[in-house]
Design goal:
Layout lengths: L9 H11 L8 H14 L3 E7 L3 E8 L5 E3 L5 H4 L6 E3 L12 H4 L6 E8 L6 E9 L7 H18 L4
Antiparallel strand pairs: 1-2, 1-6, 2-3, 4-5, 5-6
Helix pairs in contact: 2-5
């Protein structure tokens, strides 16, 4: 298993995460509506807005799992955070980076992942990821890609609204 990489600008990125002030806040309908829309439109069991702190990924919104956070080192979002575009793993068991990942071999048995980094508009640093997960392998269509990009864009705008 390949652990989630740490960006070279991690110190500045973490400062951006904390400046936004969203970590450990209560659930908000403005984010839940977006993750719910992802589950419905993309027909996946799991969608989340994940904010990546130094050691954990914390879920601002999570549909399909009863978790509030996970270990960053084994997270898929930790990989997606560094991707320039959408990060997709069509079949986790056929990808050497993830085949023996505990989130693949055990609950929630992730077999497909797609995520897009969410940026802090003031610094341009990636602070989180909008993602979807499935328990079976799949290939995203052009329409699926467009839907996920739109949802991530809307989520990023919400994250950057003044509080």
């Amino acid at each position: 298993m390949q652990l989630a990489p740490i960006p070279q600008d991690e110190k500045d990125r973490i400062e951006a995460v904390h400046r936004i002030g969203i970590l450990d806040t209560k659930p908000e309908p403005r984010f839940d509506v977006l993750t719910r829309e992802a589950v419905q439109k993309l027909k996946v069991p799991i969608s989340m807005v994940s904010i990546l702190d130094s050691e954990r990924e914390w879920f601002k919104s999570c549909i399909g799992l009863d978790q509030k956070e996970g270990e960053r080192a084994v997270s898929f979002c930790g990989h997606a955070l560094l991707a320039k575009d959408m990060f997709i793993v069509n079949d986790t068991l056929k990808d050497e980076r993830f085949a023996d990942n505990p989130l693949v071999t055990g609950f929630p048995f992730i077999r497909f992942y797609a995520g897009i980094a969410l940026l802090d508009h003031k610094t341009g640093k990636a602070i989180g990821v909008f993602c979807v997960k499935d328990t079976k392998p799949r290939v995203f269509s052009l329409e699926d890609t467009s839907i996920l990009m739109d949802l991530a864009d809307r989520t990023e705008k919400e994250l950057n609204k003044e509080r």
